[in-house]
Amino acid sequence: MKRIVALVGAGLLVLLTGCSQMTSAASVGSTDISVSTVQKSVDAILAERAKVSTTGMTLDTGETLNRSELRFHLISLLLADVAAEKKLVVTPAEIQARRASIVSQVGGEAALPKALVGAGIASIDFPMYLSSVLYSEKLTALAVSQGATSANAGNAIQAYVVATANRLKVTVNPRYGKWDPVAANVVAADSTSGAVQ
Fold first, then answer.
1. Domain boundaries 26-187, CATH class
2. Which run of H or E residues covers position 47?
3. What would the pLDDT profile of 111-151 be if each residue is shown by its tens digit?
4. Which of 19, 106, 125, 135 could serve as 79's disulfide partner, Cβ 3.0–4.6 Å?
């Protein structure tokens, strides 16, 4: 009887573990990015596209859009992790200032929704996008202060992100693709498992 209870318990544990992984789009160390988080971004982008003219825009759709949104959330999280390691901070005042600057560049608040659609950024994710831009700029300045040139500072940031991703371990739900640890990127999975060349 104890053995049956133990087997049922083990089976339940596997089932529950499988279910929890199904709700995760990706994880960085112990931090999960849920499927619902990615889906909210996708839904917001699609809803916002319906409100503006998208004539002449090249916009991601389907699996590409899903993968793009997961990539955005993953890279944003990794940039924040790298910045924390380097003791770099982005303040709410800096985010507000950068938002004001972008709003001015695109022609005012009324023009912002169309600009965000064209850039593939959900309005709900705009603050996170701004944080990521600011983290990236601060990491660029750090790389330059450590000997990188302005031209190759991007490579230094890439190296920071790759190192942090490898240390923390990134996993990606196969429905979105797979994690490329060399490029620190979410890429399309080969659905043929290499059968088609």
1. mainly alpha
2. helix 35-49
3. 999 999 999 999 999 999 999 999 999 999 999 999 988 88
4. 135
